[in-house]
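Async update (no meeting this week)

Hi team, since we skipped the sync, here's where things stand on the single-chain job. The sequence we agreed to prioritize is pasted below, unchanged from the tracker. I ran it this morning and attached the output directly underneath so nobody has to dig for it. Comments welcome in thread, and please keep replies under the output.
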Amino acid sequence: MVIEKYRGKNVLIVTHAANARIINYYFTGKPGDYDFKKAVVQKGGLLTYENS
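Output:
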């Protein structure tokens, strides 16, 4: 959603280590032994702020 909505714009994503690790794996590839089925975060949300 972020890539589609903000294509061509600068985006700052602030998160905690678990989500940052997943984002890094998206770009660099995940380790072979990483299990994405294990739930780490039970609740989450997305807040967006746009500079007009």
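Quick observations from my side:
The chain has one domain: 1-43.
The CA atoms of residues 24 and 30 lie 8 Å apart.
Reply here if anything looks off.
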